[in-house]
């Protein structure tokens, strides 16, 4: 099966008047269709920079990226990007916030409007379509932000710590909720997170990066023997602690 995403020897450095800071060095990995991959690493190692390079917001200085077999510059594959904060506009209703990406990309049509209504209904936001963001809980706002991303029908979802602004209890609930939404929609996803429990509960594989400049230290496959494989059930499974400790050990070997 051809990977949806393929990175080979990706290098990137930030250039300032003070000099050059290398952020990524020789990053190589691939992601299969429908796979959920988590990326973890020391704080400041370059995880978010990596997502920006994959999305095309930053251009790799060396190496290649292919999406669905085409080089990134030639690819027409739709990439969805979900950030730490929901960035919902208070002067727009939830429905019109969901339509924002469609408007920007000149994709508004009867079909896309119907899709927006369908997703809001499917993910429990139908009755809040005419509400303003301030009227929703933090978890519901993040769900609305995900719907805004999914309505663009992306082939790949890039998630940059999308639950980090939520309190712990809400984060658990929303992580479980959104994780299942992404799997049920059969989307390919890359999640950057500092939360090792989140990585183990959501991912098919965990990519562990070294300290800056980031390179791939280890790629850990994550499998659970569960009748119903959900993030919440994983947290209660005996394998959970084993995976958590393996990742912790990899991240803290130098200490």
Task: Describe, in plain words, how this protein is organized in 3D.
The strands form 2 sheets. This protein has a 6-stranded mixed sheet with strand order 6-7-8-3-9-10, with helices on both faces. A 4-stranded antiparallel sheet has the order 2-1-4-5, covered by helices on one side. The longest helix is centred in the C-terminal third of the chain and has 17 residues, at 168-184. It contains 9 helices and 10 strands. The chain is 35% helix and 25% strand. A hairpin with a 2-residue loop joins strand 1 and strand 2 (19-31). It is α/β, with parallel strands linked by helices. The model has no long low-confidence stretch (mean pLDDT 88). Helix 5 (138-150) packs parallel to helix 6 (168-184) and helix 7 (196-202) crosses helix 9 (238-251).
What brief labels describe this structure?
255 residues, 9 helices, alpha/beta, 6-stranded mixed sheet, globular, single chain
Overall morphology: globular
Q: CA-to-CA gap between the ends?
A: 39 Å
Alpha-carbon Rg, integer: 18 Å
Mean pLDDT: 88
By DSSP, the count of extended strands is: 10
Number of helices: 9
Decide which structural class fits the backbone: alpha/beta
Poorly predicted residue ranges = none
Helix content: 25-40%
With strands numbered from the N-terminus, the spatial order across the biggest sheet is: 6-7-8-3-9-10
List the secondary-structure elements in sequence, H or E. Answer: EEEHEEEHHHHEHEHEEHH
> How would a crystallographer describe the biggest sheet?
6 strands, mixed
